[in-house]
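The material for today's practical consists of a large collection of protein records. Backbone structure tokens are a discrete shorthand for how the chain folds in space. An example says more than a description, so a record of this kind follows:
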Amino acid sequence: MTPRQWQTWQYGANPLTQYVRLWMPSDNDRGEAPKLPVAVLVHGGFWRNKYSIDNACHDTLAPFLCSKGFAVIDSEYRRSDHEGGGYPGTNEDVLHAVNSAKEMVRAGISLNLHRIVLIGHSAGATLALWYAAKVQSDKNLICPKLIVAIAPITDVRQAQTRQISDERDAIAFYMKCKPEDGVEAEKKYSSASPIRLLPNTVRSIVVAGRKDTIVPYEMITDYFDRVKSNSEYGALHELLELDADHFQMVDAQHPAFQRIFARIEARLCSGE
């Protein structure tokens, strides 16, 4: 299928930061067309303003996924320096971005809300795992069939301690505090950290790159060990370890993403 140019859907008050781009195969968008599976993308960039939907290194994914028969919702959100951005405003934007799919269906667009895969990269993967936790407590939210967390920051407190990010201060800017600021700050960090929000009852693929020099490989594998230790839900989740760096994993033409996509197809088709 050939992708056509995207259209913009605004989900919040700020048209510059609270919107999604909808990509559809050119021959399937309205009317009696079959309902399409949906890939929702959440870009990374350590929640910093300088990294946006346009330059967060995931630009090959939407046209690729669209060409494979997916409707693609590429999400923009307020970042740390935007009014209302940072935690929890950034996270709340992702809730609205994912659930904008409901508005699209009401507008007559042929989307299958029961076959949604939520794909996040880096900071966006953290947001995707956080979304999975919110789904468990809010049944009004769309529940993805699959979460794909590529290089997620799974422990925000540890990331702050290790000063992960290009400028070493992104976590504190995102959280608007440091863990040592007191009990409330500690609680805030826990509420933003996927490792503190287990168990996860939404099926997931967690992706770690052995050559990733940005998000520590062992942070992801430690998280997955915790995930798998849950006897009731551990079987829902898969760790995909790749010989790739942070950005190769979101390059649609790279073998690393091709492996990720193969697992997405297998999981969506089989219901694993």
Summary: The helical segments are 61-67, 89-106, 123-137, 156-161, 170-175, 183-192, 217-228, 255-270. The two ends are 26 Å apart (CA to CA).
